[in-house]
Amino acid sequence: MSVGLLHYLILAAILFSIGLFGLIQKRNLIVVLMSIELMLNAANLNLVAFNRFLPVDALEGQLLAIFSLMVGAAEIAVGLALAFRIYHDSHTISLDALQRMKG
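RE: above sequence
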């Protein structure tokens, strides 16, 4: 049994669903950032899988995935910097508490 495109798409859908659930359900800033990263990695898996299994010799899918990983790394760096600053100011990273503090 070989691993085909459908296997990769199912795995990416599961990863994206877990990330979406974490984004909707959790109210912790760090967990929300991790959920966004999980969703981004699911999209990258789709890009690489389609690039691997479609009959095209170009590397657009892999290049887009690498670019997306770089953007994701920058997003996480900025998000964590904001989370550290918010924690320093308010001693919480709960999104509910931050929304109440907003006034």
